[in-house]
Design a protein that fits this description.
heterodimer, A: 166 residues, alpha/beta, seven-stranded mixed beta sheet, 8 helices, B: 418 residues, five-stranded parallel beta sheet, 31% helix, 18% strand, globular
Chain lengths: 166, 418
């Protein structure tokens, strides 16, 4: 069960906003986290606490393919991102590195910045503890669920390669 | 099946595929650059295999922060270079390298019918050659380097049909900005954009590369064109392996078909901070600029430079403006030298650089200070994209960018050439 305070953003949050390219001369997650969201939310890095949750409207993570974006968010301590929709490369990247994502329009509409949420990833249940409301996220397709439960793409690939060798 | 579905099916053991289906597809080419390769290499080491599946099908290009802009970037390129030596992976050193999406087609590394995955969002550029090419992250690329395949969800296809014949200064950049302006930055989310119609048939290959390149700016997984005689003329002298040309079925199912008559559209300019903020250049108003960038994977090809030279020839860059011109590859650069474009640029007061992505992503070679404005032939004008979060980027075609360099404010080419 995840529990945290909500940072809420609008539509089309791009990967340059999540981690500006000027910091991409390194790839260590902790260093990237120091600059997460800084061009659109100067206070994010200093205020974020482990377990906190990012919430956004449509097309979160659009733009570049940089995996540095979900790496920075994860290393900043964010436990999951909830949006109406995600840009597809960001979606793949987040799943691959083990940053949980949930799509749920109702939860986004029914939550304000600063609310506290409790999220059950296995059931896709999002509880807004501040407002006493419960929302159901869109379930993952079976293949994606398998990828997530293997522990991400690298573990999934290791298992596939091992099966090939047998 | 649509063109994209045909190519995807051909890279599996299935005869038919349909949107929403999850597949494992064999890949023909895998790409990474100096920003994305270090993470891909780190993750590849965790897969438990020692060697990549086929070093001849993997290309790494140092193009983003190169020639190395600082020590940290040099260290990243070093990781990539050493991995390529160790694995025998194809690598282009500074001096041979170009911007990856200009370079790979030129080198004949991407061919019609291929599936290409790249750790760079503009990998979709290669759809101009009738391949299925899509951007992914570093971990996806790591897994594919180990296995030679990758999972994909079959995307629905949106067909965009362009009718009519374009005006004098209207090209691929204007058609794609107009399209994104209409459908929005998530108008093609998870989908393939198949570009068709007599207006794109008439476009040179360079214009098609520009359009496919910016498919991602509408959220698309790929942008794709059918192969025609122009494609074949481009491919034939470059291809060093066989390739397949696929055609969409007549009864292929499209999620949506969009028709545009582009006869009357003007050159487009996308205002900050979204590629979807496209407006006709005549309606921009009086916008003074500090910098012009002509280049990038979107518009750094020979015909782009030729358009800029047509406007700049015999004229001077406005004294307040820094005009930076970056050929997309060594081949483009050399063509620009031998066909005397570079002299035109230098005489006009522009700076010309070796190939690099550089300023497009705020890396180096033309970073903006707060309050500064740039008109660029690049692909993104997000907050902070070219430097200070308080700077602004306007996107346009090379002729509009060159005309604006002369005027010192955003204008169409007609305003300075007549």
């Amino acid at each position: 069960m995840l529990k945290g305070r909500v940072y809420k953003y609008g539509v089309n949050v791009d990967t340059d906003a999540i981690i500006p390219a000027r910091y991409l001369n390194v790839s260590e997650p902790a260093e990237l986290a120091n600059h997460c969201m800084e061009d659109i939310d100067r206070d994010f890095v200093t205020e974020v606490k482990p377990g906190d949750i990012i919430m956004a409207a449509t097309n979160f993570g659009c733009g570049s393919s940089r995996e540095h974006a979900p790496l920075a968010i994860k290393a900043a301590g964010i436990s999951c991102v909830i949006a109406v929709t995600f840009a597809r490369i960001f979606f793949r990247n987040a799943i691959n590195i083990g940053l949980p994502l949930l799509e749920c329009e109702q939860a986004v509409n029914g939550t304000e910045a600063g609310d506290t949420l409790e999220v059950d990833l296995s059931g896709g249940e999002i509880k807004n503890l501040t407002r006493g409301e419960v929302f159901a996220a869109r379930p993952y397709p079976d293949f994606m669920a398998e990828l997530i439960s293997s522990g991400g793409l690298i573990e999934y690939t290791r298992n596939r390669l091992a099966a090939r060798r047998i | 099946m649509t063109l994209a579905e045909k190519i995807l099916a051909a890279h599996t053991d299935k005869k038919e595929v349909s949107p929403g289906e999850f597949l494992n597809v064999r890949v023909d080419l895998i790409l990474a650059n100096d920003i994305t390769a270090p993470i891909a290499i780190r993750e590849f080491r965790k897969t438990g295999v020692d060697r990549v599946f086929d070093p001849g099908k993997i290309v790494m290009v140092p193009d983003h922060f190169t020639p190395n802009k600082d020590i940290a970037s040099a260290e990243q390129v070093k990781v990539m270079r050493e991995f390529c030596r160790e694995q025998g992976v194809i690598y282009f050193e500074v001096g041979q390298m170009g911007i990856e999406h200009v370079l790979l087609p030129e080198q004949g590394l991407v061919l019609p019918g291929d599936i290409v995955i790249g750790a760079d969002s503009h990998t979709c550029t290669y759809g101009a050659l009738g391949s299925f090419a899509t951007g992914m992250g570093s971990t996806d690329i790591a897994a594919a380097m180990a296995t030679g395949d990758i999972w994909m969800k079959v995307p629905p296809t949106i067909k965009v049909v362009y009718h009519g014949s374009p005006g004098k200064w209207v090209g691929g950049k204007d058609l794609i900005l107009y399209t994104i302006g209409d459908i929005g930055v998530d108008g093609a989310l998870y989908s393939v954009l198949e570009f068709a119609g007599e207006a794109v048939d008439a476009l040179p290959l360079d214009g098609r590369f520009t359009m496919a390149n910016m498919a991602i700016e509408a959220g698309a997984k790929a942008g794709i064109f059918r192969v025609d005689n122009k494609t074949q003329l481009y491919i034939k002298p470059r291809a060093r392996r066989p390739y397949m040309v696929y055609e969409p079925d007549n009864n292929g199912e499209y999620a949506q078909i969009i028709d545009y008559d582009i006869s009357t559209i003007e050159p487009q300019v996308a205002l900050p901070h979204s590629p979807a903020n496209a407006r006709p250049v005549s309606q921009i108003g009086d916008i003074e600029i500090d910098q012009v960038v002509i280049g990038s994977c979107t518009n750094g090809r020979f015909e782009d430079l030729q358009l800029a030279a047509q406007v700049l020839k015999g004229r001077k860059v406005h004294p307040r403006v820094r005009c930076i011109i970056i050929p997309g590859s060594q081949e483009v650069y050399l063509d620009a030298v031998t066909r005397e474009l570079i002299g035109i640029f230098i005489k006009s007061g522009a700076a010309v650089s070796t190939p690099t992505c550089g300023p497009c992503l705020g890396g180096h070679m033309g970073i903006l200070a707060s309050g500064e404005r740039c008109i660029a032939t690049t692909n993104r004008n997000f907050v902070g994209r070219m430097g200070s979060p308080q700077s602004e980027v306007y996107l346009a075609n090379p002729a509009v960018a060159a005309a604006s360099a002369i005027a010192g404010r955003i204008v169409g080419p007609e305003e300075v050439t007549t």
